[in-house]
Amino acid sequence: MHDPRNAAAFSAAEDDVFARIAGRYDRLCDVFSLRIHRLWKSHMAARIADHAAGRILDVASGTGDIPLRVLRRLRHRTGEIEHLIVSDLCPEMLAIARDKLSGTAANLEFALLDAHDLADVPSGSIDVYSISFAMKICDRERVLAEAMRVLKPGGRFLCLEAARIPATPIHRAYLAYMDWCLPLIGRLAADGDASAYAYLLRGIHEVPSQDALAAELQDCGFSDVRYDNLTLGIVAMHVGRKP
C-alpha cells in the first residue's frame, strides 16, 4: 500500500539501488535531467551559502555535488565555513563525496546519517539544514520532525525537490514525456537496473504540490515558509525557519 508520506514508496532497507549505481550516479543525473540539475544545484548552493555562518548539515548529500558548490561559492566570496556536515545513508555514495571534496576545506565532516533518525546530531545544534532531491523517497513527516529537532531556534531549513508545474496541461505533458523517456534512457544509462529510474518516476508522479509541501512545513512548526519554482516548476526550492 502506498504511503502518502513517501512519494516514491521507496525503502532503503529493501533496495540498495544507490549503492549499486553510486559510481555512475552523476552521469545518471545528467542523463535524466539533460544536465539541468546542475543549474538547480547551483541555485540551492547559493541559498545555502547565503546562510553559511554557523553549522550546516547537508542531509542525503549523495556524491557531494551541492556541498562542493557551496564551498566554491564561499571561496569566490573569500568567505569561510564554520562547519559543514556532509551526510548520506549510503556508504558508497558518501565515499565518492569524500573523494570529491578532499582538500577543499578544513571544516568538513562526513557522516553516515539517516534523515529519518539523526540520533548522532544533538538537538538545537544546527544553523542550516539542507536536503536535495531526497524528500520524495523519504517519510516526509519523520524527516521534517528531525530537521526541526536538530535546528537551533532561528535556524534555516532548505529543501530542493521535484515539484508540480502550476499549469496543469503542461504538467500532464511533462509527466507523459517522463513516462516515455525515463524507462528508455534509464535502461541504457543504468545498465538495465530498473530501480535506478523506477523510484524516480514514482516520486515525480506522487510528489506533493508546492503548496501542499509548504503546508506540511507549517504543520511541523516552521515559520516564514515560502518556495520558489525553478524551470517552470519542475522543481521547487522550499525554505522555512525554526521559530
Present the secondary structure layout:
Blueprint: H1 17-21, H2 25-33, H3 37-50, E1 55-59, H4 65-76, E2 83-88, H5 91-101, E3 108-112, E4 126-132, H6 140-150, E5 151-162, H7 168-189, H8 195-206, H9 210-220, E6 223-230, E7 235-241
Parallel strand pairs: 1-2, 1-4, 2-3, 4-5
Antiparallel strand pairs: 5-7, 6-7
Features:
alpha/beta, 7-stranded mixed β-sheet, 44% helix, 21% strand, 243 residues
Give the gist of this structure:
This protein has 243 residues and is α/β, with parallel strands linked by helices. The protein has helices at 17-21, 25-33, 37-50, 65-76, 91-101, 140-150, 168-189, 195-206, 210-220, and strands spanning 55-59, 83-88, 108-112, 126-132, 151-162, 223-230, 235-241. α4 (65-76) links the parallel β1 and β2 (83-88).
- What's the CATH C level? Alpha Beta
What topology, given as strand order, has the largest sheet? Answer: 3-2-1-4-5-7-6
- Count of alpha/pi helices: 9
Strand-residue fraction? Answer: 15-25%
Class of secondary structure makeup: alpha/beta
Main sheet characteristics: 7 strands, mixed
Question: Helix and strand string, N-terminal first?
Answer: HHHEHEHEEHEHHHEE
